[in-house]
């Protein structure tokens, strides 16, 4: 079966522009996460969706960042008025969720490498 | 103090050696402990997980949790060049939603 997919794989944008990053989770996975990984750094939690519950946005670094998820499918992470410090790899992960046996089992996509010039 | 501490390395060891990777943590409520492996330019993949204290073995890999010391380890036996990657520890509170990741340790296995 297909894994988590993300698009685009690479994105170069000018400072001040808006960008949209897409994540297609594994079918049936109720939980979806977005992380940011700066060069040589660990994973920085951004936002978490679980079913129809209100998302956990506690990791979003500023109000320029937002994310949406349609039901239990595709999610979009939007960064408005991009800054150079937004340059990073943005990783999406999905999980079967508690009902599926474990939130710890996160399946990651390949990431979107964002470069803000 | 960060919730999860992990030495970033890099750690270079000769092929065939036993590798020991470690993390410490501060939150005594953590119950689930995981190790993820991340190859260059790829997303992390779950390698092993353990619940509460104890050891778990899977082939050449052994995960160990010492809750009294708030210390977890991953041992790799008979290390191979293909084990060269970044290893991230991760942990979560029982039935909690959020997983906290360490920064990862870069491992190089020298042929």
Architecture overview:
The complex is a heterodimer of chains A (117) and B (111). Chain A has 117 residues and is mainly beta. Chain A is built from no helices and 10 strands. Chain A has strands at 5-7, 10-13, 19-24, 31-37, 44-50, 65-69, 75-79, 88-95, 107-108, 112-116. In chain A, strands 2, 4, 5, 8, 9 and 10 form a 6-stranded mixed beta sheet that branches. A 4-stranded antiparallel beta sheet of chain A has the order 1-3-7-6, with no helix packed on it. The N and C termini of chain A lie far apart (37 Å). With 111 residues, chain B is mostly beta strands. Helix content of chain B is 0%, strand content 57%. Chain B contains no helices and 11 strands. Chain B has strands spanning 4-5, 11-14, 19-25, 30-38, 45-51, 54-58, 61-66, 71-76, 85-93, 100-101, 105-110. In chain B, strand 9 (85-93) and strand 10 (100-101) form a beta hairpin. At the A-B interface, strand 5 and strand 9 of A face strand 5, strand 9 and strand 10 of B.
Considering the chains and any ligands shown, give keywords for the structure.
heterodimer; A: 117 residues; mainly beta; six-stranded mixed sheet; four-stranded antiparallel sheet; globular; B: 111 residues; 0% helix
- Characterize the biggest β-sheet of chain B: 6 strands, mixed
Mean of all residue-level pLDDT scores of chain B: 91
Report how far the terminal alpha carbons of chain B are from each other: 37 Å
Q: Uncertain regions of chain B: pLDDT < 50 for 5+ in a row?
A: none
**Chain pair sharing the greatest interface:** A-B, 24 and 24 residues
Shape of chain B: globular
* Helix/strand structural class of chain A: mainly beta
How many strands appear in the DSSP assignment of chain A?
10
The H-and-E topology of chain B, N to C, reads as EEEEEEEEEEE
What number is the mean pLDDT of chain A?
A: 91
How many distinct helices of chain B? 0
């Amino acid at each position: 079966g297909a894994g988590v997919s993300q698009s685009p794989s690479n994105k170069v944008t000018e400072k001040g522009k808006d960008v949209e990053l897409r994540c297609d989770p594994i079918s049936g996975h109720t939980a979806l996460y977005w992380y940011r990984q700066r060069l040589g750094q660990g994973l920085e939690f951004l936002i978490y969706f679980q079913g129809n519950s209100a998302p956990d946005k506690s990791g979003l670094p500023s109000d320029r960042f937002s994310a949406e998820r349609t039901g239990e499918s595709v999610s979009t992470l939007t960064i408005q008025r991009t800054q150079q410090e937004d340059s990073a790899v943005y990783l999406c992960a999905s999980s079967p969720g508690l009902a599926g046996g474990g939130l710890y089992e996160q399946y990651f996509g390949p990431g979107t490498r964002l470069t803000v010039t | 103090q960060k919730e999860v501490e992990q030495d970033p390395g890099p750690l270079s060891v000769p092929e065939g050696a036993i590798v020991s990777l470690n993390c410490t943590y501060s939150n005594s409520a953590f119950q689930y402990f995981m190790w993820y492996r991340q190859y260059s330019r790829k997303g992390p993949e779950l390698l092993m997980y353990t619940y509460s204290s104890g050891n778990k073995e899977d082939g050449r890999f052994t995960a160990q949790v010492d809750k009294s010391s708030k210390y977890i380890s991953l041992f790799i036996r008979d290390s191979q060049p293909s084990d060269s990657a970044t290893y991230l520890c991760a942990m979560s509170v029982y039935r909690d939603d959020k997983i906290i990741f360490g920064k990862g340790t870069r491992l190089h296995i020298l042929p």
